[in-house]
Amino acid sequence: APTVDHVAKTLRALKRDVERTSGMNWADVAQSPLTGTAASGEPSAVLTQTATEAQRAVHAAGEPQWPRCPHHFDHPLTYRDGWWFCERDAAFIAEVGRLSAVVPRVKRRR
Known about the structure:
Elements: H1 4-21, H2 26-29, H3 43-60, E1 78-80, E2 83-86, E3 91-95
Antiparallel strand pairs: 1-2, 2-3
Helix pairs in contact: 1-3
């Protein structure tokens, strides 16, 4: 089972993915899961919930395909066990924190 250290490391990696590829700031998409009710939750569930919430916030901000699958380009990847996952191919695409190597950065209109 993931430890608190693992959770903190994965959250930093998720923050890196959001900021490097979505064009958004982490503070704008994520609530801190280390406070409030989520802090007492099971670590992998906390990570999944945080990734899902961050993804929803990016989608709501106008990027509904984030992070866009680099194989198909018409659907977002989903978070699964510390990886970004393509449901269509049932394939792990990129480890969380390494998304920018496979997904181009969204160009935000200022």
